[in-house]
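Quick question, first post here. What does this chain look like in 3D?
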Amino acid sequence: MNNNFSNLINSVPVDDDFNYCEGLKSGLIFLKAQRAGINDPDSEFPWQVNSSTQFDTYKNGELNHNGFGFLSKGYFDAGDYLKITNTLSFSMTTLSWSLLEFKSNIEKCGLLEAYLSALKTGVDWLIAAHPEPNVVYRQCGLEADHSKWERTYQIYIDQNGQHFKRDCNKQIIDINNPSSDIVLEMVATMSSASKVFESIDLDYSQLCKKHALSLWDFGIKYQGKPSYVEMYNSKDGYEDEKVWASVWLSLIDPLNIAQYEPYYQGKCDKLKSINDKWDVVYSWANKLPAACIFIEKNLNENINISNSIINYWNTKVPKTKDGIFFIDEWGNNRYSLGGCLLEAIWNNKKSTLITNFSKKQMEIILGNNSNHYSYVSQFGFKNSKLPINIHHRPSHNPIHFDKMNPINNQYPIVGALLPGPIDLNDTYYEDRNNYKMNEPALDYNSVFIGVMASLINEKSSRVELSFPIYDQNNDPYTIVASSPKLLIPHQLILIFIFISMFFNSINK
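> Answer (accepted):
Ran it through. Tokens below.
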């Protein structure tokens, strides 16, 4: 049974005066924590002080004049140290789209500069990953790298202590090895970023547009997908990416819209009859519902699809007992908030709203649920339990490649949207080993940030971008100064002694 009460019984109550600017800030803090290639003694995050993916570069091994590889920066994808073009591109497109829709809200929070910095960090890496017209680098790091559980300075060290340079060159996308889904998603990324920076940095906007047009030519001329992809293989082909790329190009290149129209006109007809929840999902693997909303809203084509997409979310997508939209057991919160972002964008600037489920979904995620947990690490409603021991290597800072040592994550991460419940009964527990419940990722936070930006209201107020303060003198059990204190081994022993003394006194 779906529970539609504004405050769930036996749950953490909704904060009536909650400042959604704080939520937006927390999401941006997570993105800052995910930045790669940093070797900065002044970094806000201790693991970035000696962290560097210095040798991530092209297949020729070339380094720049500072001795860094051309793919050394960017973002780590999730709770690991991989760099994945596919999900990064989706995430940056989502950030751009959200900024174009909710820029005034972001400005109200005083977070525009931080937002643009987060966006540009990802787009810069994607530009570097497209060094030639018909070449795109798919990823840095392989499944073997993903299987390690290490500190940041050990990215180039195996478990035997041997140094190596990890691979950025497996399955490079080129004319002999096309991957149209990734190339065309990058078109959307570059086009949307070009639109964002059009009034901010015209030179950068033009650079993004140049890459968008080049990638479009590449993706359309050399269509196809590899038969095997080690990670993040979209099983749905690339027809949705054709639509997605073409609508974004139509926005930034209107003089040539006639050459893009055949790739999106009539393509949304398949959503006139929606028969499956996956048809309305917005994710790195499916952009068609987003493209259809974009067409109806931005290209002035009356295709009468958007209301059907949003109504399907509102009435047909299954919900857990707590009321979260439930799509899949792995990473469900990203799907829920992906649907919320579609609703928020479709509703934006409308005087009359057909639905308004985004706010309720976010409230459940922030702690108004039967688990009493916020599904955002170190951030949520008052009195909600804030996850600490998430599936995230830099946050854990392991000893000797051991996932269980130390017991608690040394550097609790702020603002990471977690996958959350794994079934319709809202099953969730905080366990570093359970990545399906507890591993954050860029694409999760991109929709989280977008929905947070949409929820800025009259109660929201400007915030200062501040970062957690970590106790550097308490290694290996470092705690966040502003967070609830973690229990460390000697404290657990003392508690056990006191409990034993208490029961002994009762029994006397």
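Residues 1-6, 476-508 have pLDDT under 50 and may be disordered.
DSSP finds 16 helices and two strands in the chain.
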